[in-house]
Write a structure and sequence with these properties.
This protein is an alpha+beta fold. The chain has two domains: 275 residues, 3-Layer(bba) Sandwich (FAD/NAD(P)-binding domain); 182 residues, Cholesterol Oxidase, domain 2 (2-Layer Sandwich). 23% of the residues lie in helices and 22% in strands. The chain has ten helices and 23 strands. Strands 1, 2, 8, 9, 10, 11 and 23 form a seven-stranded mixed sheet that branches. A hairpin with a 2-residue loop joins strand 9 and strand 10. It is globular, with a radius of gyration of 22 Å. Keywords: FAD, Flavoprotein. Pfam families: GMC_oxred_C, GMC_oxred_N. InterPro entries: FAD/NAD-bd_sf, GMC_OxRdtase, GMC_OxRdtase_N, GMC_OxRtase_C.
């Protein structure tokens, strides 16, 4: 028996567990399917790409994507304490104020959540803002300015527009996950139990009240009762567990229906990237303690938009897809779409497993926007032939002389920002309680009605902080 059971020890779950320890007298059971973060590659910002399809990655795959060359896309998701924060690029982005105002949910406007971001930034999650970037990164920033994009010294101050040096969740040259920052200092707390290798199979109910969870470690089954259960398993894991537990669209549920909620698993959103790759005859050097991505820009694909819909990321390495080839010395300007119109679905497979269909590029406007993003990246990349940052001799390797719409469909990849599958308004309320049941809340990126404009990690931390506020002022 525990007062609180938190399912998922990732970005949100670690924050929720710490907050409940700090602000209640209750006992907390945290269940994580992965292990502790002992892989050295997790902590070295330069080794991020080694973690994909590693034991710390769920290695999720989509169904074939009709509008992306019928390809099966890899969706890296963390299976380790720290979750996807242990796999990502460590980029600290609040999102655009219009995102939160656009959600239309009481208590979730920009005026409501901005103080939470300030709490995060002044609390355990230290933010790295001052550093010396790779020389090629400074050259990219200069080239973007010559292309007419203004320099923005702080894209988190409410105005995202422009080219910027990134802010990072890095401390002392190491990745700073919420597991390290929030959970690490309290691992020995007498009211906290952390179970790793815990695969949660279903939620337990008495009528429509969630009374606990059932999980396995190896071949052994376990159960725990709880006063309140908090799902923080992410935009893929949280709807999957709801569906397995009888909460979702009734015709799609394999077992008894606890609550008929048609929108569970729907509204799957993500951000999308298309590689624009340059090689150079000047050696690209890398700064220890920083990831390969150090600058980015926020821009508009067309006039009249309420905020930026593009966020190209700049990497100091050539990020070739498996079908590509080229020299190891170069850089990538990853054309990024952060306001996609395409939405997909997470559903149950006949065996109880997952079917993930993001329906990437199913809306033609998303292709249009990415074509504009690629064109912008090409302009910036070609600007590195010369300029104030020195001679780079940049040569475009990809896309090269191809039809851009075809190239976008052939090369689009995830930006690792799945969201929206347990959205506020349709699946949970503004208090994050699941509709139709009691004793159950969701606190992770799945509750976003629309994915925010930018990296989703820090907004997920904000959601977790907000969840603790709600649980300690509005108990179940």
């Amino acid at each position: 028996m525990a007062d609180f059971v938190v399912v998922g020890g990732g970005t949100a779950g670690c924050v929720v567990a710490r907050g409940l320890l700090d602000r209640t007298d209750g006992t907390v059971l945290l269940l994580e399917a992965g292990d502790h973060d002992t892989n050295p590659a997790i902590h070295d910002p330069l080794r991020m790409h080694e973690l994909w399809d590693s034991p710390q990655d769920w290695g999720l795959r989509t169904v074939p994507q009709r509008d992306a060359g019928d390809r099966v896309l890899h969706l890296p998701r963390g299976r380790v304490l720290g979750g996807s924060h242990a796999l990502n690029a460590m980029i600290h982005v609040r999102g655009n104020p219009a995102d939160y105002d656009g959600w239309g949910q009481p208590g979730w406007s920009w005026a409501d959540v901005e103080p939470l971001f300030r709490r995060i930034e002044s609390g355990p999650l230290r933010i790295l803002r001052e550093y010396t970037a790779d020389p090629v990164q400074d050259a990219i920033v200069e080239s973007a300015q010559r292309a007419g994009i203004p320099y923005n010294p702080d894209y988190n101050d409410g105005d995202q527009t422009g080219v910027s040096h990134m802010q990072f969740t890095i401390a002392d040259n190491k990745r700073l996950t919420t597991s390290r920052a929030y959970l690490g200092p309290v691992l020995s707390h007498p009211r906290l139990t952390v179970v790793t290798g815990a695969h949660v199979r279903r939620l337990l109910f008495s009528g429509t009240r969630c009374t606990g969870v059932e999980w396995t470690t190896g071949t052994t089954s376990h159960r725990a009762e709880a006063t309140e259960v908090i799902l923080s398993a992410g935009a893929i894991g949280s709807p999957h567990l709801l569906l397995r537990s009888g909460i979702g669209p009734a015709p799609d549920l394999a077992g008894p229906v606890v609550a008929d909620l048609p929108e569970v698993g729907n509204n799957l959103q993500d951000h999308w990237l298309v590689p624009t790759i340059f090689t150079t005859d000047r050696e690209v050097t890398h700064t220890p303690g920083l990831p390969h991505a150090q600058t980015h820009l926020f821009w508009h694909s067309r006039p009249g938009l309420p905020g930026p819909d593009l966020q190209p990321l700049h990497f100091s390495v050539p990020l070739y897809e498996p079908w590509m080839s080229g020299p190891a010395n170069g850089f990538s300007l990853m054309a990024g779409l952060i306001r996609p119109r395409s939405t997909g679905r997470v559903s149950l497979a006949p065996d109880g497993g997952l079917l993930i269909d993001p329906r990437v590029l199913s809306e033609p406007s998303d292709v249009d926007a990415l074509v504009e993003a690629v064109a912008l990246c090409r302009e910036v990349g070609h600007g590195l032939v010369g300029g104030g940052a020195g001679e780079w001799g940049a040569v475009e390797r990809y896309p090269g002389r191809v039809e851009l719409r075809d190239y976008v469909r052939r090369s689009v990849v995830t930006y690792h920002h799945q969201a929206g599958t347990c959205a506020m308004g349709t699946v949970v309320g503004p208090d994050l309680r699941v509709h139709g049941v009691t004793g159950l809340r969701v606190a992770d990126a799945s509750i976003m009605p629309e994915v925010v404009s930018g990296n989703t990690n820090t907004p997920t931390v904000m959601i977790a902080e907000k969840a603790v506020d709600l649980m300690t002022t509005q108990p179940t």
